[in-house]
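User: Structure please.
Assistant: Input sequence and predicted structure:
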Amino acid sequence: MQIIGLHVEDIMRIRTVETELKPGLSLVLGENSAGKSSLLNAITWALMGKRSQADVPVREGEEHGTVVLDLEELKITLRVLEGGSRQLLVEGKDGEMLKKPSALLEQLVGHMLDPLAFDRAEPAKQRDMLLACLGIDPMKLAARIDGLKLKRRDSNRDVGRLETELKSREAPADPPLEKIEVADLMKQADEVRALHEILQGYERLQADTAAQIEADKASIARLEKRIAECEQRAANAKKMEDQKRAELEAMPDYATLSQQAADAGANNARADEHEITRQQHAALDSARAQVDEYEKGISDIGVEVQTALSEADFGVDGIAVGDMGVLYRGRPFGQAASNERITLSTAIAMKMRPKSDEQIRVMIIRDGSLLDAGALEALKAAAETNDYQILVERVGTDAGEHQALIIEDGALVAT
């Protein structure tokens, strides 16, 4: 919908303006203080509601002011009293008064009537506006990126710490392949020592038995039976001695086992050092992998945003979202040519408007005197291409080849 009829009375500097409006680009012309801004303010208040109303909206000396906008499907009537109180009515095509007019207009108009508000915004605000236009919540996107950056920072700290530790640690030149069980060697050494003690016992037993035999030879007759028993005991002892000696000979000696145990301790210390080094290398690799993962996450977010930009189809190539603002062809948006900024700002403003067949397709540009002929042509083309009505405020009365409303002393003097 666009404004096809306009009636403004006693609003700020406007006494009475009643006219028809045409589609496309229209200039609102007049000298300073003629009432150009007052007329555009009146239209803005009717479309945007109290969100944009001035503190003293009624013409000096009058008790109330009126704004009536005739749109193709709706009729908007705004009555404002001297103290600032207001009454907003929205009438349907069939004459029915619609409920909740402010909420209805917010749905149909959105939050931005001036397409160049984007161009005048700070870079960070431009970035947020563009992201919102793409359906991306700037706060949630920033939270995602900040979260990944914090994780990346922590992982980078781990990488630095592990690299420092590895530089200060001397890895074994020839680390053993496996650790040696010292407990098994000590157990074997204890068994050897026990066998030595057993052998010493048997040796003492043989000596004692031999002495007994010598002592008893004088009483052979009486002690023959005992001698035989002693001989048998000696034979058994000899047999056990031979058996244990054979076991002893099959095993390393005690000194060798003790040395092996000592060597195993040094071996195991090198093995432990090697394992610590291996674990630190693994931790370093893991930390580096996490840094890469977080870098990829941040990069993927950039791809998501750029994909959304491509799908939005602003009609202008080369736009991107940077960390600090909007970029155009790789440079800050503010460094683009005036016509390029106007074209892109207008396209973004149109994209930010409600997506509805019934949306009010009206835009208002203030301070239009700063726009050169090329900028006006760019706005005119955008209005015609996208079926919009754009009102541009300019000082002076020269409309050139553009359609215009000329305001003088609060009244319309020419169209």
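The mean pLDDT is 85.
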